[in-house]
From TrEMBL:
Species annotation: Serpentinicella alkaliphila
Keyword annotations: Membrane, Transmembrane, Transmembrane helix
Transmembrane parts of this sequence: 7-27, 69-88, 95-115, 121-143, 155-175, 195-220, 227-249, 261-280
Protein name as annotated: Uncharacterized protein
Amino acid sequence: MKSSKSIIILVTSIILLGIVATTVGIFSSSGPGPIEFESIHGNIVTMYGKGIYKYMSSTAAPQGIAQDYVTLTIGIPLLIASLILAIKGSIRGKILLTGTLGYFLVTYLFYLVMAMYNQLFLVYVALTFASFYSFLICILSFRYNDLNTMFKKELPVKFIGGFLITNSIAIGFLWLSRIVGPLLKGTYPIELEHYTTLIVQGLDLSILLPAAFLSGLLIIKKDKLGYLFAPIYIVFLSILMTSLTGKILGQLLIGVDVGPVIYIIPSINLISWVCTVLFLRKVNNQEILLKKIV
């Protein structure tokens, strides 16, 4: 990254706006409480009715609040620490920073298009903007010709790549199992609730899961791009799965039967963090592999 000022300004903006978005999401509570709403498909959906997420369903809003806790207590501190390390020229810091920015980008892109319009709309816009461009700057700051020497040879690429591929296929089939049946019957999946389309499933199937699959395939083949995309995706996935684990706990607290995901998501979460540690431990201590931020 050639410009430290650009990254510092963008990431600092994400940190400050992220604190605003998460604290408002966690602590806002005004509103009448649960209310029933008839969706465009004629289904009765119970709305949360409180705080900034009052127009989200009673099952989705607690998930948003749970994710806000993870973003505030894990995402933002990791963003601060990784920025400091990256500015000092640390490869580990740069990997952590890029992956964490990927988490913020995906998180607030989903908030922007799914959290229902509320007073934080422009905050979500700004967070998505800042996350996207800082993520792009970080990606472009890695030197392509040196990517295959960024990690030690004993890095377990088959294990990491196999995990990324397996996870992408498993989640892909999970989403398709919930989509294809209703499509063939001419009905609507229960996950649609009062939304007009399946935003999470659509973006997962079209962008995130293919990215995981390709990253896994490339690193197994020891392709240079695999050494760039796989560690970044793993860091992103680790934080994302932590937030999903938090969402599951949030649902359990309100008495929702989450089914087998109570075992699946925490397991994926644990493996993701193991892979993150493996990447960070196997980094070559060659700071010349990074373009200077300054």
